[in-house]
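Item description
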Amino acid sequence: MILARQTGNRLGETNALVNLGYSKVFLARQSDTMDTTVYNEAILYLEQGLQLAEKAEDIQSQSLGNNSLGIAYVILEQPLSAIAALEKGARLAQIAQNIYLQGLSYAYLAEAYYSIEDKGRAIYYGCLSMYLLNQINSVEWRQSGGLMTIIQGQIGKEAFFNLLSNYRSQILPIIGVDGYDYLPELLQEYKES
């Protein structure tokens, strides 16, 4: 980062800041630390990196930065800030055709909406995440599968699928009819494993 800054390499500096923030968030998440200092430091790097990424019109760095920022806000229990960052990150990931970041953004959007008791949107994003991450063989689909199972246990199977059907027209452009029809089977697969 310092070398990139000294040589005037704005893209290198952007990538360094975003990657540093991303790394700090994911290392803290893996170690299950709730040290707010670590997350706040990561947020500062991510915000700096995002400013530079926006100026450089670097879609991939913007997506990664917003995703990481949103995850940090979810962990810090700031769901409204998380939602803003994650929705932007998911849109950018879709443009960049990065299914992993798109699915991960949806997973944390589901958690953020669940924390503010918006079960409909939690189901919408959780099912999208579950499907997309499963399609690329990422084990992280299970994170959303777990949340969807919890919600279904709270409201019942019929109410769960009624809420899901309310979002059908928004889901179809992202995962298609086959994807939508596969969601109950995927949820059952999670429960049986």
